[in-house]
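Database export, one record per block. Field names are fixed; values are copied verbatim from the stored entry.
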Amino acid sequence: MLFRVAFALAATTAAAAAAPSVAPAPDRAALKQYCTGDYLTYCGNFAPDSPEVHVCFKQNKAKLSPNCQSAISSYMRAQRKG
């Protein structure tokens, strides 16, 4: 689960840099807004799209901020709805 979230965060960050005129989906925007600080705090020494960052998010799941955890849950629910 966190693997997908970290990947989505990385993809959102890369997409925003590549095409700033394209707005990210609301759930991805929430991930970026609420999880970027957690990424920088716990996993910032890894490239956003690397396998290491996905492992790092999994290892630090309990330490993630409540807002980030909520954004992850919302994102996962939206992904299941398709």
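Remark 1: The helical segments are 2-18, 26-43, 51-59, 66-81.
Remark 2: DSSP finds four helices and no strands in the chain.
End of record.
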